[in-house]
Amino acid sequence: MKARVEKVFGHLDPKPEALLLANSVEPHLDGSFFYLFDVPSGLFEGSTAVAYPDGNLDVLSSPLEATSAHLAAKTDRHLTVHVPTSREEGDALLHKLLDSKGSVGLNYQELTHQQFLKFEKMFPSARWVDASTAIKRARVTKDAEELGRLQKAADIGSAVAREIPGMLQEGMTELALATEMNYRMMKHGASGPSFSTIVGFGPNGAEPHYFAAGRKLQSGDSMVCDFGAFYRRYASDITRSFHFGKRDDEMKKVHELVEEAQQAALAVLRPGVPGKDVHNAAAKVIDASPYKGRFMHGLGHSIGLNVHDGWGMNQLVEEPIEEGMAITIEPGIYLAGHGGVRIEDDVVVTKDGYRFLTTAPREYLEVSA
Amino acid sequence: MKARVEKVFGHLDPKPEALLLANSVEPHLDGSFFYLFDVPSGLFEGSTAVAYPDGNLDVLSSPLEATSAHLAAKTDRHLTVHVPTSREEGDALLHKLLDSKGSVGLNYQELTHQQFLKFEKMFPSARWVDASTAIKRARVTKDAEELGRLQKAADIGSAVAREIPGMLQEGMTELALATEMNYRMMKHGASGPSFSTIVGFGPNGAEPHYFAAGRKLQSGDSMVCDFGAFYRRYASDITRSFHFGKRDDEMKKVHELVEEAQQAALAVLRPGVPGKDVHNAAAKVIDASPYKGRFMHGLGHSIGLNVHDGWGMNQLVEEPIEEGMAITIEPGIYLAGHGGVRIEDDVVVTKDGYRFLTTAPREYLEVSA
User: Fold this and answer.
1) Which residues of A touch B175 (CB under 8 A)?
2) What would the pLDDT profile of A179-230 be if each residue is shown by its tens digit?
3) What CATH number should be reported for the domain whose range is B2-139?
4) Can you give the pTM of this predicted structure?
5) CATH class for domain A144-367?
6) In this structure, is the dihedral angle defined by the CA atoms of residues A303, A53, A21 and A42, taken in order, positive or negative?
7) Looking at A63-130, which runs of residues are DSSP E strands?
8) Do B191 and A210 touch (CB under 8 A)?
């Protein structure tokens, strides 16, 4: 896509003469390959893309996705698709495209070291440029097509979040709930979950990256549900925390604090503000409470082609917030042995502030057992 | 896990003094991290592991998975878990563990180039060793624990394959079928699909890596369903081809050929045979038919912690088959504009041959419209 190729080169100074992106074997695929080459279907393992400052793009496609690749090229006159039938043919073509280039950009953040060594050997006189910061800066602000897909992915997540209270049954396992949640996401149009669904009942909610497993839902359990959908390769990421059965005054209080922390972050979120200021606004609320130190992760991250899309927001990030960024805002408090609360929304940064992509209610929902 | 650490070092000659594995951000996680550190839950983004020739393992865990990490260490006296609370603390610990080591192995196949550069800067006097071949050789043959999980993952795939004919309805979309298949996999105990489920109706079956999308099932369609389950981090991968409604004599004939090709490959599959001989046995059957050239991918790949687990089998692979390998055997024939047939089974190589992990029927099933 010409506009995206130009956007990446716009962030490169000095500009390399070409940009070379390479997928290895799944899961080691470069999200930027799919950023520049917008193709609905396929893994494109072992495929490469070469982009140029004038906006043109050559894709060397694996034969396993040749039909989809050719179809994409039909509607994009700046895209040329090649389907080499052997490694030798592919390497010869890469030489033809790159031998005359002095400087070549690579995405160090998503390229395997093995691929790098292969390219170093193939092009001994190339001057390699780390393009990963430029790629990240281009990808972190979204275009209209991307925002449309992110909205749809977020809508799917919001719809399922609204349905969770109706799915809860005493004695069900975390995995059984995750099963229903993933099913509903696909029923609502997701191509699949955007990551391994997190459902933590009771004390398991206190581990931020816990995966759904075998604990059974008991009256008195709080729970953390963190999940997301892929829609046309774009991810959503939403967390809601619920309570089941017997009241737990402490967790209710904790939820209020996390809501307050999220509001505090959103209140300062706008273009130009350093990322750390947004994080710190939330952290300050929690650190002024008896739960100081129980919020031990960054406030959020960019979302896009990957659920953790290259940019993270924590107390060290000086980089300012930009209009068009799609990010999560997800404060949490974790009490080992008891439970956790996290509230996570996807937002787009606007000229003056932000707008929500996720729309599900944020209140603590106490579901009867 | 001591036995796995020792297995990897057993394939390294000369042996480095330590092996350093590093996860970046999802999806750029190193499967080998989870091979050596068997922990049920968590992404462990930004986490590292340092293994030693004596079988010991240090894990520097992200705080987001601290509980799971500590729990795993309780039952493994060769495992030490650290949870640094800052980047500085983590880097200082890595220095303590590695500064005295002259040679350090890295998994070039799954390490990002960015991580490599970070380590190169941190340890300017280290002698880096590419451990990826040794890691691949260790991981490609499975231990009893791995085989148990692979069997369970394959059982889930087989159960769902048996249920597909009962799910088919005229007018349903590919994505609707994929939705039901993924749901059933989780109902049968999967933690999720091991890759984006492939359902190709009619001509879409002719693209090997097509993703399920919007085509509606019509009488006369053949279809390819390629899917798999994750069970305790281990993947299965199964393909079955069906026919719906109005007979299609050509596709039936194509399916017979693919069955014959798979049988031919299985007939020569045993330890000591070069991988290319197994591939060629299947290719020979197809190339002797009117469909010469329509089988344009490798015959199979290893399965394990990744669905494409590091080793692939095609006409170039001289490496011999080994006892204990878990691999797919998946010949196919693809007819552009018409449809495709692929039959894929997961097998374990035994002393004298192989045994199936997948058990679903392999015959062409013609389902009434």
Assistant:
1) 186, 189, 191
2) 999 999 999 999 999 999 999 999 999 999 999 999 999 999 999 999 999 9
3) 3.40.350.10
4) 0.96
5) alpha beta
6) positive
7) 79-82, 103-106, 127-130
8) no
